[in-house]
Amino acid sequence: MKAIDWVTQILQVAAALAAAPLLLGWVNMCRAWLQNRRAPSVLLAYRGIRKLFHKDAIIAEGASTLFRFAPYIVFANMVTAAAIIPSMGTRLPFGAAADAIALVGLFATARVFMALAAMDIGTAFGTLGARREMMVGFLAEPALLMVIFVASLISATTALPVISERLATQALVLSPSLAFTGVAFTMVLLAENARLPIDNPATHLELTMIHEAMLLEYSARHLALMEWAAALKLFNYACIGFALFVPWGPATGESGPFELIASIPVLAAKLVVAGAMLALIETVSAKLRVFRAPEFLATAFMFAVLGLLVHLLLGA
Amino acid sequence: MAANPFILQLVNSLAALLLLLSFAMLAQRRVVTLVNLLAVQGAILCAATLLLAWRTGESHLYVSAALTLGLKVIVLPWLLHRLIRRLGVYWDTDTLLNTSGTMLVGLLVVVFAFGLAQPISALASTATRSAIGIAVAVILLAFLTMITRRKAMSQVVGFLSMENGLFFGAMSATYGMPMIVELGVALDVLVAMLVLGVFFFQIREQFDSLDLEHLDSLEEET
Question: Does B96 touch chain A (CB under 8 A)?
């Protein structure tokens, strides 16, 4: 069954690349509906990326090579992450390359390069965005690691595909620790993907930007890659969430082509529901002041640690 | 883990919720919400008692569940809400530590409580013994709530939450205290609440505020 594993692997990465802008479009569509606006097309993100690829890139004066290479590095990191996260099957040949902790490291590498590139130009906005991003990042990462530790403790491994497989096949129990970490993970997802309580993805208002501020100097294909990478990041986070908290669906064990095909509509359904929920959370919450962001992430960290403690004590 | 019957899983989940509510109380700055959280904590306690009563068949647990429902979910929150309205204390903002700091100290307290409860859990023979640690944590967190607040109102809420933790601890260690003790404690809490209500008015009359800082500088008149 080696061939089917490779097919799963390739199909999964291809699906991530293709569906990531679609997920972003779906979230924006739901948000528009919830705010009584007419929704833009789901395909808007694709058109944006296509348009940007056809333009000529302009690079700011004094930009170093780092600035030029950062989009490729960020994008490559996100694609690698998509290869490790079990969204369609858990027997991934790539899964052995990195465990869940290295996965957090991949996200961190992407973040560092993004921040460095933003500072490289030397504009005030880029630096401001980079600083804020690092502030959010250094608070969100421990919380994310804690979430992963709880799942690792339950399934006695740090390899994400194996965690997902064990969680999917174990007996169904009420698990308060997973519920707590689920809340923590949702908060981290919002913060890491520049969603509403921390950052507003729809605005270019200078004082509130985090993610957008770092991309201000990019144009054409670099910008397209950065935006595609951001969409991929959201997709990856959603898939990590599925792997940890709704692990049923992906093909597990010695599966044939049928399980692989069956996993695709399940993944699609999960993404539709998750996108709608994300839009709902964003619609009902107001943006926090930047100085309140540490409090928000400290709460996420607390939830994750609480999940860990409850797991250690109750064994559930 | 899989051997645990469903009822016990449910009780354990409720215990985890109690712990979560204790943290929410630790972070909450609005006194009205604090009282509501206390009522929710009482309701969860009541549900856990009912489940345990159903599982063990101990009839006196039904009585204590009814007592919890009447006293901690309805009467005490109602009394507190009335006090808040009459005293006009809605916020308790200036605490000793900021929220994140309090949370981190709270986490350390939980770790300490779990360590403290380990030998007790090892000795207990009830099915819910793993929840003893959570009960101790709830007690200590309520204690921390009392320590970090300045206003008398939120200190009283912390005190009542501590009583909730004690009740839960007794329940998970020995399936509840003897009926007479439980009735006595319930009466004590009610009376304490009434007396404290009178105290609040006295304190406010004396100092024009419910900030207990003022009590530190009391001196005997000579």
Answer: no
Q: 3-class SS at A89?
A: strand
ipTM: 0.76
CA-to-CA distance for A108 and A97, rounded, in angstroms? Answer: 17
Can you tell me the distance from the alpha carbon of A125 to that of A278, in angstroms, rounded to the nearest whole number?
Answer: 28
Tell me which chain A residue has its CA closest to the CA of residue B24.
Answer: A299
Assigned domain for B219 exists: no
Query: What whole-number distance in Å separates Cα of residue B94 and Cα of residue B185?
Result: 32
Query: What's the domain range around A200?
Result: 2-314
Q: pLDDT band for position B138 (50/70/90)?
A: very high
User: Per the structure, how many domains does chain B have?
Assistant: 1
B12, B111, B114 ranked by CB distance to A316: nearest? B12
The one-letter code for the residue type at A123 is T
The answer to whether the Cβ–Cβ distance between A295 and B99 falls below 8 Å is yes
* Alpha-carbon gap: B144 to the closest alpha carbon of chain A (Å): 16
Residue among A299, A309, A316 minimizing CB distance to B111: A309
Identify any residues that bridge with B206 across adjacent strands, giving them in sequence order: none
B8 Cα to chain A: minimum distance (Å): 10
What is the Cα gyration radius of chain B?
18
Task: Work out the average pLDDT over A233-246.
Answer: 88
* Closest chain B CA to residue A315: B1
Count of structural domains, chain A: 1
Domain that holds residue B83: 6-213
Query: Taking CA atoms, what residue in B is nearest to A306?
Result: B107
Reported confidence tier of residue B141, pLDDT bands at 50, 70, 90: very high
- B59 pLDDT band (50/70/90 cuts)? confident
Q: Residue B91: beta bridge partners?
A: B30
Confidence (pLDDT) at B222: 60
Per-residue pLDDT tens over the stretch B72-86: 888 888 888 888 888
The answer as to whether B182 is a domain residue is yes
* pLDDT at site A315: 67
Q: Is residue B126 part of a domain?
A: yes
Shortest CB distance from B13 goes to which of A174, A299, A309? A174
- Chain B residues with CB-CB distance to A306 below 8 A: 16, 19-20, 23, 107, 110
The structure tokens 């009780």 sit at B11
Residue B2 has pLDDT above 60, yes or no: no
Give the number of other CB atoms < 10 A from CB of residue A35. Answer: 11
* Residue B166 included in any domain: yes
Nearest CA in chain B to A314: B130
Judge: B130–A302 Cβ closer than 8 Å, yes or no: no
Q: Which of A74-88, A253-267, A274-288, B78-92 has the weakest average pLDDT?
A: A253-267
